[in-house]
Amino acid sequence: MQLPDSIPTPADIADAARRIAPHARRTPVLRSRSIEALAGCEIHFKCENLQRAGAFKFRGACNAVFSLSDEEAARGVVTQSSGNHGAAVALACRERGIAATVVVPRSAPRIKLRAIEAFGGRIVPCEVSQSARDAATREVLAETGASYVHPFNDTRVIAGQATATVELLDEVGHLDVVMAPVSGGGLMSGAALAAHYRDPAIRAIGTEPEKARDAHDSLLAGERITGRPTPTICDGLRAELGPLTFSILREHLETILLADEAPIIEAMRLIWERLKLVIEPSCAVPLAALLAHRERFAGLRVGMILSGGNVDLDALPWQADRD
Amino acid sequence: MQLPDSIPTPADIADAARRIAPHARRTPVLRSRSIEALAGCEIHFKCENLQRAGAFKFRGACNAVFSLSDEEAARGVVTQSSGNHGAAVALACRERGIAATVVVPRSAPRIKLRAIEAFGGRIVPCEVSQSARDAATREVLAETGASYVHPFNDTRVIAGQATATVELLDEVGHLDVVMAPVSGGGLMSGAALAAHYRDPAIRAIGTEPEKARDAHDSLLAGERITGRPTPTICDGLRAELGPLTFSILREHLETILLADEAPIIEAMRLIWERLKLVIEPSCAVPLAALLAHRERFAGLRVGMILSGGNVDLDALPWQADRD
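Structure tokens for the assembled complex are given below, as produced in the milestone run.
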């Protein structure tokens, strides 16, 4: 599982944009005056929940899959994911006409498995532990000779995610700040690099749930903190930084702001109500963090990546009883 | 309550587009490959749920309000509405800096009243009957000398609603069919006229819930049918055609297709799941009707207006027990 692990260059990101253009959507950028009045700043929402397969993940997966040589591609692609990345890889492989295998822990929700299958991905179930996932992945790699596409710690994936911020900046012009959620750090690494390459004065600010603050604490400690529980409602934000994303975020982030669970749910509902967009809880973390730190953003022009909209419509968080 | 009741001309619609451009959003047009695979045709969704105040209604209200002379405007605007039109008029009046009064039946849901108030509209409650609404409206008109803006049977309002279809056609080029829901008929009249003026070969197809099929039956009977109960979940589709919208739809509609309640709820959920858009039940009627009549649309390029997204997030229809 040797990974392409150099920091994406401006050329890598421009190549990614060209490579994914025939496949990915150029998602709209929306604003809400009532949310801006609450926030005290301009917010330009880049709607990656409207991306194919319902999340920004398709950009990175698509760039990785279409970066393969024909010979490599013919042997297929393998990944590990219990979430949006698995579906994104399956869809990207379908677009290229090659096989996708997704190693999925048995605990994964049925709804996520259905998405992978809907795009023609083969599911290999395994036990939940990381070592079990790695073993299952190695087995598939050995059997098939397929290429491995990591969900975030991969140059091609980060370059793909960066294209969302490139489009955002192309559309709205200057921004003071770009914000996104941080899980494994692929989206935020791409956003920070795209912003930095456009204008080093743009501030890149990551966001995490207070209950999954490993990236925040890793940056503070100067080393990756791993193995913590992540008891947050944000099922998309439970991964940990990889070596590559850690080094990019350490170099380029101003900070990581935290948000508590109840404000995350409130921000999620606010986006549903005012922007009329279906987003998943993870996707609401940047707005929750901004609203909890209004003074930091007063009067600024903020770009915010809405990361995804894959949520179980039968179990909305504001309808459950919560502590 | 003399209404401007001529059929909007191409010039009226072009004027409306210019008049509302500084205020209304140019909403995005989205597609979903999975919905198209289900439907067997191309569907270009014009996302008026993302319009200001959450519905296409802002276009017509804005055009009417900004059509007033300064002298007329100074005396304010009055309308009757228990739904999206009231909020749209309140917002349009706030944009122009004039007073809005909305006559609202006491039965209207709190959530709709809050939207009118949030935009600075004055609410005058009245009894539910149409005669009570008219009496309350006349009283306000007599007191204030304000201008009346009817929700649909008004040249200025129809010309405003038509701009949604103008934008849709500008963006996607040729369409075989344009579809929208029919309540009072303002949106569908505007869509049919905009399509006809662009290319008389474009087919205009209205849609209604089976449980509020008064417009369908009116076209069939050749005269307006009124006074029927409308026991549908689609709270935005309970109005009846006016003389102006009836005459436009009679001239320009190919037909009105009907949809049952359960398929409407399924179509609503499909749009939430696949397009990641919050829409209200009324807004799902065209997709439900299309899916119920697939053969009619096979292989065509369809434009569909998503009319609005104002829905109570605490009471989603697929979560309630229904017959």
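Residues 15 and 159 of chain A are 8 Å apart (CA to CA). The longest helix of chain A spans residues 155-172. Further analysis is deferred to the final report.
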